[in-house]
Amino acid sequence: MASSFLLSNPSFTSARHPNNPTSRRQPLTLRPTSAFTLLNPTKPPSNYNPKFLKPTLPFLGFKKFAARISTGDADTDTSGPPPFAGEDSAVFELGKQKITSWIYFSLILGVVLFVLDVGWIDNSTGFGKDFISAVSSLSESHEVIMFILILIFATVHSGLASLRDMGEKLIGERAYRVLFAGVSLPLAVSTVVYFINHRYDGIQLWDLQSAPVVHQLAWLSNFISFFFLYPSTFNLLEVAAVDKPKMHLWETGIMRITRHPQMVGQVMWCLAHTVWIGNSVTVAASLGLIGHHLFGAWNGDRRLAIRYGEAFESVKRRTSIVPFAAILDGRQKLPKDYYKEFLRLPYLLITALTLGVYFAHPLMQAASFRLHW
């Protein structure tokens, strides 16, 4: 449910990207040789008549052809795609990984989970149950409570994201990431647990669970949605602030399909669960989550425009919010080996994680029920 906010160096151009030239082209100029002396003399003769040698279209065409021969590029089409302003997504180079960084990541993850359990989840020591009780006192409707929980999370999450530039200047990137996660994570856990415990408590609007292929379609939609939901942070070391957190401006992989994959993934997840469960609580949760991510798409574009200026505008011109729209209208040119942008370790991890979460549904439901939130 986290919004996707990304960054990079605005002048970054990956030389390894398949759409980028491998070297910077030199200006096309004629090298004075005996064959081209009359076309491009180093010094005009004394009887030079500008009117007599006034350029014509055939002359200019031959001059361009001669220049291309001079630079050894006679068969190369220079009208290729513009250079990339963003980053190549999901790149993972094993040789650049440090074992110590992943040890720190494991330790930080363990500490975070321990503090989250003691300070929030455990009913005997944490504040999670008190928080749910306080919100539940506002209404007897599970739909209203579900919507309020999402509204609280969305306000805090998007509010802290909007204040990120100012906050990082005051306390630094790593400290602000800790603050951001420390406040957002407990609220997210409370919202998810309440949804799991009360997903069947609303008014049943339809029941399609016994209909043919509905389960398969819902499962497939949910599975695909995680490939859109994940790319807010391809570098897990930044999530734990082991590496300095950055606001990335991704431009390849899933970003070619939609500039806001988390919003698209959340819509897919909500539709799949709403169709499958088919009651008023799920509808309320879906409306809240989709509304939050629609705002996040607008807010994310606004923040990236402030941070990157023309670099973001360049990315915006050749991407789209609506999936595949930029591809269909020709603004996004897919390379022939586009599929290789998905054959990378982060996407393989998404596949394994998604399958793991599906098979862990009974464990998640049992753990949520024991909390009685």
TrEMBL record:
GO terms for cellular component: chloroplast; membrane. Residues 1-28 are annotated as: Disordered. The chain crosses the membrane at residues 102-121, 144-163, 175-196, 216-237, 342-361. Keywords: Membrane, Transmembrane, Transmembrane helix. It is a multi-pass membrane protein. GO terms for biological process: carotene biosynthetic process. InterPro entries: NnrU_dom. It is found in: Membrane. The keyword Lipid metabolism does not apply. The keyword Secreted does not apply. This is NnrU domain-containing protein. Residues 146-364 form the NnrU domain.
